[in-house]
Amino acid sequence: MNRFKILVVDDEPLNTKLVEAHLFGLGYDIIIAYSGEDALNKVSSEKIDLILLDVMLSGISGFEVCRHIRQEYHQTMPIILLTTLSEVQSKVVGFECGADDYLTKPFNKDELLARIKAHLRIKTMMDEIEELNKTLEEKVAERTQTILKMNQELSDSYHLTMDSLIGALDVREHETSRHSLRVAFHTVEMAKAWGVHGQELEEIAMGALLHDVGKIGIADNILLKPGKLTDEEWVEMRKHVDMGWKIVRSIEFMGRGRELVHSHHERFDGKGYPNGLKNEEIYIGARFFTIADTLDAMTNDRPYRKALSFDVFLEELKKCSGAQFDPKAVENFLSVPRDVWFQIAQRADFVDFNKLITAIHSKCI
Q1: What whole-number distance in Å separates Cα of residue 102 and Cα of residue 90?
Q2: Per-residue pLDDT, 226
Q3: What is the SS3 assignment for 302?
Q4: How far is 310 from 128, CA to CA, in rounded Å?
Q5: Residue 187, class by beta-carbon neighbours within 10 Å (0-12 exposed, 13-18 middle, 19+ buried)?
């Protein structure tokens, strides 16, 4: 066990010898300083456990030494002031300077030893607590880094899953990924205007991106048919919603984005599919998506027609408000300046899923 080091500071050699005599044989290492400057040098260069500090020093006073130590060095090292001053005001000044205790000369040996033992006991406990806190902080920091690494790996895995699903669908039906990104950007912008933020905003983006993932299970002769579908073919095509739900329902990190995949063909008036949901029964992200999907379908070229103007889309949006579209979602869309929609459509053609998610978290869109 390490021996305690006690620094005795007094410019009178007789006083330091008296203190040494009192502490002799008790297992302490005694260090002597004959001035305030000498005391500060020793504190800065050695590990001191306790200081017995005379107030009336020549040069730098004991009060000044005490104050300097507290400001620059140790906060837990006990400092006991020794002085012939007995006025209450002197004691107040000493405590304000950071002293832990005050003994008036001539002091009683037993009282001195008792005070030293008490303060060293307190210091030992405080040092143990400090060391424990340090250890805990290191463990917390280490654990935090581990969690951050795991979260990043998990996030990378999520993004890889999303990219893989989008890529698989794009192989089946070309231009699907561009369409998915455009409607995801538009849906996210509407959700932001509504006040959605954070994790749910990302979930909506993921749902919008994977809204048609169920088309992976639709036969090529129906999915890639250039002309109009028959009634029987439409029955098959509509199955992509339930197929999509089966694919994403176990992907927990998508959160409510899974609801968007399952209900993106529902209508506000209840005439949609697959479940005939209506009004607020439909997830708000899906109500935004319906508008975004119609915007993208009408303002981009299709095999059977050229792109229509944004104004034509607006006419359709207003006409179908309350039927296909949620009236409040329509108002929300109209509250966003039209230039924003043009800029988003252009930007979406040059980014991927990871950039979309990064933009959401950095509030760039």
Answers
A1: 10
A2: 78
A3: strand
A4: 71
A5: buried
Distances in Å between the Cα of 312 and the Cα atoms of 189, 318, 341 are 21, 10, 15
Residue type at 278 in one-letter notation: K
Where would I find the beta strands (DSSP E) of 55-109?
79-83, 101-104
The three-state secondary structure class of 104 is: strand
Contact 81, 94 (CB under 8 A): yes
Residue closest to 209 by CA, chosen among 354, 358, 363, 362 = 354
**Mean pLDDT confidence for 335-361:** 70
**CA 30-36-38 angle, 5° bins:** 60
Q: What is the pTM of this model?
A: 0.57
Q: No. of H helices and E strands in the chain?
A: 16, 5
Place of tokens 């599919």: 273
Largest CA distance in the chain: 113
* Residue-range domain boundaries for the chain: 5-134, 173-361
SS3 content of the chain, % helix, strand, coil (to 5): 60, 10, 30
Candidates 1.20.1510.10, 1.10.3210.10, 1.10.10.10, 3.60.15.10; correct CATH number of 173-361? Answer: 1.10.3210.10
Place of tokens 């109009």: 228
- Of the candidate CATH numbers 3.30.365.10, 3.40.50.2300, 3.40.50.1110, 3.40.50.1400, the domain formed by 5-134 belongs to 3.40.50.2300
pLDDT in tens, 195-218: 998 889 989 998 998 898 888 888
Beta strands 50-54; 5-9: pairing state: parallel
Q: Which long-range contacts (CB under 8 A, 24 or more apart) does 123-128 make?
A: 123/49, 123/50, 123/76, 123/77, 123/78, 126/76, 127/76
Question: What are the Cα distances from residue 256, in Å, to 56, 107, 248, 282, 324?
Answer: 74, 76, 11, 11, 21
Residue 303 has pLDDT above 90, yes or no: no
Rounded distance, CA 164 to CA 148, Å? 24
